Amino acid sequence: MTTSDSGKDITLHIAQNPEADELLGRSPLAALVGMLLDQQVPMEWAFTGPYTLAERMGSDDLDAGRIAAYDPDAFTELFTTKPALHRYPGSMAKRVQQLCQFLVAEYGGDASAVWRDAATGDDLLERLKALPGFGAQKAQIFLALLGKQLGVRPRGWREAAGPYGEAGSHRSVADITGPDSLIEVRAYKQEAKAAAKAAKAAKKPGTSRKQ
Predict the structure, then answer these.
(1) Exposure of 204 by Cβ count < 10 A (0-12 exposed, 13-18 middle, 19+ buried)?
(2) What's 59's domain CATH number?
(3) Is residue 27 part of a domain?
(4) Pfam families in the record, alphabetically (predicted)?
(5) pLDDT tens string for the chain (211 positions)?
(6) Which structural domain, as residue segments, surrounds residue 66?
(7) Total structural domains within the chain
(8) Is 131 exposed, middle or buried (0-12, 13-18, 19+ CB in 10 A)?
(9) What is the rounded CA–CA span in Å between residue 175 and residue 167?
(10) Is residue 112 part of a domain?
């Protein structure tokens, strides 16, 4: 994942931290872990997590086999040590370890094997949805990230990614290419959250009046 189809180095700007973004661009596992952590915390915090975790493990990259075999309590401590890697460090440490154990069992510990030979976007989407901690939405967002920024574009990838695959959209981390697009994506998320909250409130008993 270090170079695109054109042979150029891949540069990401999701974490808004040069070292963390450099790791995301060259490490398939770091990108997967960042996506896994991307819930209930700011996007930059989530995608800086892999870099911080690698540092705390004394390495310049993440290794699925090493994480899978790590003592669970000691691994949780890597997450809970201040500053914590997540708002819910204990549960996310468990999820990251489960993800790596799955990758070891199903892909020999090679994260890039999840998408390397995927023939179609639908095939890739199913593989991503099978990963521990990856629901349908998270799988589609990561598929969009792979296609839009990491050069992984099996046939039908945009369609499989749903709205997140649309060109020119600002819906998710797949669309973050710098500070300006980060602001646009954050604004979209806030608007979507407000709309969902309003819709939920409208459905509550007593919110409608009889004609």
Answers:
(1) exposed
(2) 1.10.340.30
(3) yes
(4) HhH-GPD
(5) 544 444 456 889 999 999 999 999 999 999 999 999 999 999 999 999 999 999 999 999 999 999 999 999 999 999 999 999 999 999 999 999 999 999 999 999 999 999 999 999 999 999 999 999 999 999 999 999 999 999 999 999 999 999 999 999 999 999 999 889 989 998 988 887 787 788 888 887 654 444 3
(6) 16-198
(7) 1
(8) buried
(9) 9
(10) yes
Which residues make beta-bridge pairs with 9? 3
Q: Which class for 82: exposed (0-12), middle (13-18), buried (19 or more C-beta within 10 A)? A: exposed
Whether residue 177 is contained in a domain is answered as yes
If you compute the radius of gyration of the chain from its CA atoms, what whole number of angstroms results? 18
137 inside domain: yes
**What phi and psi, each to the nearest 5 degrees, are found at residue 85?**
-80, -15
Tokens 């974490």 belong to 15
